[in-house]
Task: structure prediction
Amino acid sequence: MIHYILTSLCVLLLSFGLKAADPNGIIKGKVFDKTTQEPLAGVYVVYGKNLGTTTDQDGSYIIKTTEGKLKITFQFIGYESVTKDIVFKEVETIELNIGLEMKVREIDQIVISANKNEQKVAELTVSMDIIKTAFLSDNHITDAQELINKTPGIEVMDGQASIRGGSGFSYGVGSRVLALIDGLPVLSADAGNIKWQFLPLENLSQIEIIKGASSVLYGSSALNGIINFRTADASNIPVTQFFAETGIFGKPKNRNWIWWNTPRVFTSASFSHLQKIGRTDIGIGSNLLIDEGYRRLNGEKLARVSLRLKHFNSKVEGLSYGLNLNAGYTIKRDFVLWENADSGALKQNESATIKLHGDFLAINPYISLKKSDRYRHDLRMQIQSSRNRFPESEKNNSDAVSAFSEYQLWYRLFEFLDLTAGASENYSHVTSNFFGDHTGLNVAGFAQFEIRPLNRLKAVAGLRIENNSLDRKNDKVIPIFRAGLNWQAADYTFIRASFGQGYRYPSIAEKYAATTLGSVTIIPSPGIQPESGWSSEAGIKQGILLGKMRGQADFSLFMSQNKNMIEYFLAMYTDPDTGIPSTGFKATNIEQSRVYGGEMEFMMNGSIGNINTTISGGYTFIYPVEFNKVTNKNTGTYLKYRRKHSGKISLNGSWKKFESDLSLYAKSKILRIDDFFLSEVIGEAILPGFPGYWQKNNTAYYLIDGTIGYKLNSMLSLSFAVKNITNTEYMGRPGDIQPQRNFSLRLSGKF
Result:
């Protein structure tokens, strides 16, 4: 509404100031789907710098201009753009009807995360998944953790992400997957974990996930891969989006678990705006969430905001600079231990619950200089702060601040050879009653060459030198290497192979955390050693054309090996303060892991009759085992908290004003968990009733989610979603029952 008011005022002022500016011509017409002939509402019609309009509900548009010549571009998400040049002879009206074709070249999508420079996804030497923002709105997703968990080959277990079985569960500290916003790390400086709730889902262009060791370009914590949230740039036409959503949790399959008398409700709202003003791009976003929770003592209130400023210098060609800001505040209680398996699986053990008041702030200034297609300089910085306040247990309070900076050079040495090189540092300071006070520093230098010896062949090789220190005690200098090949065997056939080393320095929490939650005691482990390993893969990406259906398929075989993997191990330890022996959990370098596997993913879109259809899915198989580091042979013992099989298939269709989405997710049972959970003594003490529940209920499961939406007009849509339609009862880590069937209604708008 504000946008239309401002536009009307501008038009009114111009009508007074430009008396003689009568239009030379009028262009009008309709925009429609070229296959189904259905009109397309909300298509951007851009005809000059900061000039444009959108099609109405009937797909109609009109342009009045004083120019004698115009270049008009028609843009719509999911469709190929069309550009037309129009020349007016005299004062005349031109009718221009445009049919847009759905995008069929997903294989040509542009990504940046793999080599820190833009390139086509088909030309990468590693596996990458791309999540478009439409997936969030189509599936009523407001939490980044839920989003990533619905990606083939990835599981997020109580906040900890695992890609292709590369990680298990380590009780909320230390991450082997690195989360990034526009290439900058967002792990907390104390626990080394991902603050999922503070990752912005507003004003995103796409999310890129690299499956495999990525430490050469991204450093420690990218041992298992990266997840990069890329924000969107502003266009000539301002874009404002919002949604308001409310929902309720249904009754669990086990009626004995019901503990509430009134429905458990969750509500969220989001607002974002992108606009180009002169040579400056502006983006703002905000999100509010109130979730009563389906489990007792597990609710959350959350607010987050984001700001994007980017200015293109008018005097120096290729020079741009800006500032990004992300901030959030949450009040919540994490679910740690249930009361019992019979009637209290959705009720938190009161001795383990602690209310958290947490805040997060990240400020990212940057400057970039790009000279044609020859070279590019980037200097980026980030100040990040996270604070945890526990009013009911101040001994667990923690403040963590980090200062990250990175310089990167991309240089085209020859037409067949590119260099990407740079240096980075990450300083962190933690003040905590929980961990103690500590200071850390990571410094690194990296270089990577991309060579194109033949027309359809690319090779990549890179090296990183990294050093970590904690409290002025230096770790050894670590070299990390990667290499890869990509060969375009045919027009739409790309074959790849890669090898990459990984490395992860322990988090401060893994070294120094000391606390008690209910019957669980955590013991410090200052002597814990870094994790290291490597991953390799071979794969093929194939473009597909089947009648009116077009898309791509990707097949890969992979293997990874890691040593000194950190796990929490239950045993007798001597209390460092009292000297008295006690039982507790301590971070220990205990696991030597190998993971073998294969993965298949596909995406097809097109039309079936008058219905625009997209079918996508994937299947991942892993064989995760321990190996003996002395004999270097597999022991046959499964790694903990992994599943052999996981799969997904989704069907999305649109017809006239209706749109629907149906997704099926399937996972096999967890192969192995910590033995003490199954002990009739210790397991019962920690999670009453768990040993018997696990033996009976650790099985394969499947979920079905569905959404149906209706476009009210060119700006507003109404949609209804049901998640876990089958009301499947399933669990993540021990004692963590996942949501039962739930319903949500969303009103969304874009103008």
Q: What stands out?
A: The CA atoms of residues 123 and 387 lie 41 Å apart. The chain has a mean pLDDT of 89.
